[in-house]
Every structure is written in C-alpha cells, then in structure tokens.
Amino acid sequence: MAGRCAPGTEHYLLKAMHRRASLVLLNTLSLSRLPLAAVFIAVSDLRMRAFLVVLAAATDFLDGWIARHRGLATRLGALIDPVADRAFMVTAFIVCLLDGLIDPVELTLLLLRDIGTAIGFIVARVRPDMRAIELKARMLGKVVTTLQLAVLLCVLLYPPLVRPLVALVALLSLASVVDYTRAVWRQRQHRELPPSRPSSRIPHGPTGAPMGSVRE
C-alpha cells in the first residue's frame, strides 16, 4: 500500500520514539531536583526538608541507574544531572546556613569539592587545549555527594553527627579534587602524545648490507 513504511523502517521509528521518550523522562527526573530545591526554601519543617533530601537522592539514583542499564547516557544528561545535583545541594546548605543550622566554616568545608570542580570546569573550558577533554564523574566524587546528603539529613534530624561528617567530607573532598585533577591531566597528556610512527630504518645483516637485499 502506498505511503506505508517498510517493516524495518517502522520498527526503527518506534525504537527511536521510545528512546526519545525515555531520554525526556530521564532529563525530567534530573531537573525535578530544581523545584525540590525551591520547595526546600519554602518549607520550614525539618522533617519535610529531610523528606525532600531523600526524594532528591532517590531521583538522582533512579536517573543514573536507568541511564546506565538501558544505555541512555548522553552528553546532555551528563551535564543536566550534576548541575541539578549541585543546585539542590548548594541551595539546601545555604538555607541551613541562613537558619543557623550550620556555620560558614562548615558550609565552606561541605562545598569544598564543588568549588574545586567548578574552578576546574571553567579552566578546562577556557583553555583551548583542554576543551576537548571529556569531564566524567569520578567514584570519589560520588562518595562525597552521598556523604553530603548524609550531612544534610543529620543537620535536619541528628545534629551531633554533623561535625564528624563535615570533617570526613572535607578530607574526601580534597582527595576528590586531586583525583579529578589527575584524571584531567592524564587525558591532556594522552592527547598531546604524538602518534607512533613505524621505524624508517632498514635493518642490516651481519655484513652490513640491508637485510633482504641480494649482493652481486
């Protein structure tokens, strides 16, 4: 029948539409942390804020899990996810500071990793020789993010654990910045290495004549 797609083409279109819908869902999950941050500002009940922290952590885990297990990781998603994470985390910590739940020193220590990676990101994008470097999440960074969420919950629900956790976050943040810097530096060095060339020297035999040649 005229105008009807071939079976293979129809299957491809359906698959493409399903992938696009899945990507929209993933990005929506990531971006949902922005309105959660706004709600965190608006509410004053500590238990409600703790629930928002858990909800934000759940969306972070869920979108990452789906992206990895369904092969839906994209450059856009890799940008949206950490930006949404940082937006929620920084907002929540600043609100806690303004409410007197943490002090400025604790805030600085908690955001040490984020300050370091932000500076590194800007440098990598400003320098022409580093723009092509792919900035990927590192395991230490994920550990720091998890501990930051734990600190937030303790600030809201169990303050006695805040200071020890802040100290741990600060130490791991320094290690994370070093690890991140080394990873970027290795990528930069790898890109600067010239491609290996085959040797142009002709091997010689015991008599000094090129190997494979026939002497007259």
Can you offer a commentary on this structure?
It is a single chain. Among the domains are: 17-77; 102-191. Residues 209-216 have low confidence and may be disordered. The longest helix is centred in the last third of the chain and has 31 residues, at 162-192. The protein contains 8 helices and no strands. The chain starts with 6 loop residues before the first helix and ends in a 24-residue tail after the last helix. The radius of gyration is 26 Å and the shape is flat. The protein has 216 residues and is mostly helical. Pfam families: CDP-OH_P_transf. GO terms for molecular function: phosphotransferase activity, for other substituted phosphate groups. It is a multi-pass membrane protein.
Summarize this entry quickly.
With 216 residues, this protein is mainly alpha-helical.
Shape: flat
Fraction of helical residues: over 70%
Give the low-pLDDT segments: 209-216
Count all strands and give the number.
Answer: 0
Strand content: under 5%
Cα distance, first to last residue?
Answer: 77 Å
CA-atom Rg in angstroms: 26 Å
What's the helix count? Answer: 8
Mean pLDDT, all residues: 80
> Sheet with the most strands?
none
Oligomer: single chain
Structural class designation: mainly alpha
What is the ordering of alpha helices and beta strands? Answer: HHHHHHHH
Subcellular location: Membrane
Main location: membrane
Membrane topology: Multi-pass membrane protein
Family: Belongs to the CDP-alcohol phosphatidyltransferase class-I family.
